[in-house]
């Protein structure tokens, strides 16, 4: 049994592993080339997070989806570069909004330089992604534009919060379907589409991408609470400190409202206080780590991963399908 990708996905087919690894290496080279500029400082800033590494989850999904057609078709690697560049651009912007100090185990761009440099570097990466996707044809441009619209809409919905009648958990799942699921859905879609796979296969892998994307974000939510910075590559409890209510917090609020526990209500009040205070932040993080709400959020992540696996049923049995199924296990296992 061999392994492909940063998630330890089990692959029993050596040819598939070699093919995917070669594809990911080509994507890495493409990212390096796409982030070069005639201005040395721009190159340094644009390559800051590329050099820091990362899971390359989206390019991995492109490569696996391409196995259902011709994985060596000319559009496969460039489309993977497009989705990863777009993802990297959002990280630069997210870190500014979150005032994050660490990303992927290194200083965030806004911490190393300043907010203006981080925002403009993100814009530069969006521009480079747009240039590459334009070479893939008008359909690819439209798909990328629609996904970007969904991504930004999700971010705005998160900022605005749920309406008075909307369930906060339903609202949150809508937010992450846009913020995270949309681009991962494009990864599955581009991989299948660029490889020349049939329309039914493209649709299946698009749906799979969206569902595993939601599972992926829910697993990240759990990690933000449960892990240390060595595991996650960023400062634990960043969302708590910034007052962003991710699924564990929303589950806690629901449980506190339903059971009326004084202890739960006290924890909710603590989470809604000023957590820029280090001692208060540490207390809140420690309490949430042992609360049943965190386990419930873990189960939610596993549920979406299982839904993603079920989506694969119509696809023909092959090593790539097995790898996509194993990817569901790997995402769920990240929750610990």
UniProtKB/TrEMBL annotation:
Cofactor(s) it depends on: Mg(2+)
Keyword match Translocase: no
InterPro entries the UniProt entry points to: Isoprenoid_synthase_dom_sf (IPR008949), Polyprenyl_synt (IPR000092), Polyprenyl_synt_CS (IPR033749)
Domain of life of the source: Bacteria
UniProt key word Cytoplasm: no
A Pfam family annotated for this UniProt entry: polyprenyl_synt
Keywords: Magnesium, Metal-binding, Transferase
Family affiliation: Belongs to the FPP/GGPP synthase family.
Name the UniProt record assigns to this protein: Polyprenyl synthetase family protein
Organism field: Streptomyces sodiiphilus
Lineage: Bacteria, Bacillati, Actinomycetota, Actinomycetes, Kitasatosporales
């Amino acid at each position: 049994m061999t392994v492909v990708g940063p998630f330890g996905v089990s692959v029993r087919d050596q040819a598939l592993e070699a093919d995917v690894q070669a594809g990911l290496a080509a994507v890495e080279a493409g990212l390096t080339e796409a982030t070069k500029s005639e201005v040395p400082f721009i190159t340094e800033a644009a390559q800051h997070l590329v050099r820091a590494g990362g899971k390359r989850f989206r390019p991995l999904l492109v490569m696996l989806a391409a196995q259902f057609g011709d994985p060596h078709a000319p559009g496969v690697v460039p489309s993977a570069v497009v989705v990863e560049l777009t993802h990297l651009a959002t990280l630069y912007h997210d870190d500014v909004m979150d005032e994050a100090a660490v990303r992927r185990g290194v200083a965030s761009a806004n911490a190393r330089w300043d907010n203006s440099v981080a925002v403009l570097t993100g814009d530069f990466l969006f521009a480079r992604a747009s240039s590459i996707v334009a070479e893939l044809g008008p359909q690819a441009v439209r798909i990328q534009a629609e996904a970007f619209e969904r991504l930004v809409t999700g971010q705005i919905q998160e900022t605005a919060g749920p309406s008075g009648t909307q369930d906060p958990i339903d609202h949150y799942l809508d937010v992450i379907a846009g913020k995270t699921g949309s681009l991962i859905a494009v990864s599955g879609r581009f991989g299948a589409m660029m490889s020349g796979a049939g329309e039914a296969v493209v649709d299946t892998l698009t749906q799979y991408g969206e569902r595993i994307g939601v599972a992926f974000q829910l697993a990240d939510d759990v990690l933000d609470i449960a892990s240390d910075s060595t595991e996650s590559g960023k400062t634990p409890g960043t969302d708590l400190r910034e007052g962003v209510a991710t699924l564990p917090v929303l589950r806690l609020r629901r449980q506190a409202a339903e059971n009326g526990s004084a202890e739960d209500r006290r924890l909710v009040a603590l989470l809604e206080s000023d957590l820029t205070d280090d001692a208060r932040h540490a207390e809140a993080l420690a309490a949430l780590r042992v609360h049943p709400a965190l386990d419930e959020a873990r189960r939610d992540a596993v549920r979406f991963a299982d839904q993603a696996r079920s989506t694969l049923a119509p696809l023909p049995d092959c090593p790539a399908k097995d790898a996509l199924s194993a990817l569901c296990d790997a995402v769920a296992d990240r929750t610990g």
